[in-house]
Write a structure and sequence with these properties.
Helix 1 (about 10-25) packs antiparallel against helix 2. The two termini are about 75 Å apart. The chain has helices at about 10-25, 35-90, 95-100, 105, 125-135. Helices cover about 60% and strands about 0% of the residues. By secondary structure, the protein is mostly helical.
């Protein structure tokens, strides 16, 4: 989430109010520090602070984009460095593992299931061995006696 530059409705409203107050009296002084000069000074100070804020936001956004670009460049170089180690030493080497590479064969899980091997002893009848070892595809054993 990036910061947004902002405007100030209060500054716009005060600027209009200042022009209207000046039409009453150029040197209006209502007492207790309420003067045209003080009002104009606060409007200008607020405007300058707002401009400084928006400049900082703009610089921060530029910095954020620079960091994103640098992160991408660093990630690409990191991948190229690892690929270089793989090219020189091979993907199954100790050097590749040391550099942060992983052997894909170790990480892959076997997806094929091996059927259990049933030994048929010479003393066991063949049909009984088939009846105890095979299934009909739905998990039940057919009866072959």
């Amino acid at each position: 989430m990036s910061l947004r530059t902002r405007t100030s409705a209060a500054v716009d409203k005060a600027q209009l109010r200042l022009a209207l107050l000046k039409s009453v009296d150029e040197n209006l002084d209502l007492g207790h520090g309420l003067t045209i000069e003080a009002y104009n000074h606060l409007i200008n100070t607020t405007r300058a602070t707002l401009e400084a804020h928006n400049t900082l936001v703009s610089n921060l956004e530029e910095s954020r984009k620079t960091i994103i670009q640098m992160d991408k460049a660093l990630s690409e170089i990191s991948e190229r460095m690892l690929s270089g180690v793989a090219t020189v030493y091979g993907r199954n080497s100790i050097q590749y593992s040391k550099a942060g590479g992983s052997n894909g064969k170790r990480n892959k899980k076997s997806s094929s299931k091996v059927a259990p091997v049933v030994a048929v002893l010479p003393t066991q009848p063949a049909q009984a061995a088939i009846a105890s070892a095979s299934t009909n595809g739905n998990g039940t054993t057919p009866l072959l006696h």
